[in-house]
# Entry
Amino acid sequence: MKPLIRLLAAGVLAAALPAAWAQAPAAPAAVTATGKTEVLWLGQAAFRITTPGGKVIVTDPWLRLNPLTPPEYKNLEALGKIDVLLVTHAHFDHFADAPALALLHQVPLHGPGDMNQAVGLLGILPANLVPRFNKSGSITPAPGIKVTAVRAEHSSVLVWKNPATGKDEAHYGGEPVGFIIELENGFRIWHMGDTGLFGDMRFIAEYYKPDLVLMPIGGHFTMDPADAAYATREWIKPKSVIPMHYGANPLGKGTPEQYSRALGASSTRVLPLKPGEKAVF
Ligand SMILES: [Zn+2]
# Structure
């Protein structure tokens, strides 16, 4: 299937609406099955993916304090309904708004098994909202959607403010993961999470054959543009890449331009989105 790519500025319509409409509380959006996959970037590693069957998947929701998240998405209810909530690891720029969204929609937070154990034991979420799975494990969080946890070369600490003492505590956040997300039509997305280079990226690509890779390029905490270009060109060779995890703080200096330049001529299509833009496949 040749993906149809369109970039849409999601904020444009909202800006044109009468003020009363714009301020109305966002009703849980009725999402109809379009047969297409929409991937909306909300900054850092946060995406809202609408599947061909009309399911909504949200990844790594750091929204309210994320400087890149467009204002219209800082109200968590504005995301509309959520069917599947995925978190790659416990760092705040991935985990921050996940508990609130899990409670708001009563959807399980799917993340590293040991992170979820800590989240449950600390009472951040009730046990029914923190099911556990682990690397190479697959779940079917919604009909037709298969999610497999895969390795990411990173770390994961869960910082939690103890209400009894008012002090921040560091808790074990499990091992960070990436996700292979297979949609109803077989389209596969690899959300890499935060990761440095590791040789088994080649194995993961060979085994799971992702069509689209959501790839960190910012550097310092993850791969930088040259690392990401090497992984893309030599190991993964996907049809499309959306760069992520850059520009949200001064340390994530890598840019999509640097990544594209380092990649050079390639069969991989690079889709640099601005926060609030979506790619359609
Ligand atoms: Zn991060």
Q: What stands out?
A: The two ends are 9 Å apart (CA to CA). Residues 91, 93-94, 194, 221, 245 surround zinc ion (CB under 6 Å).
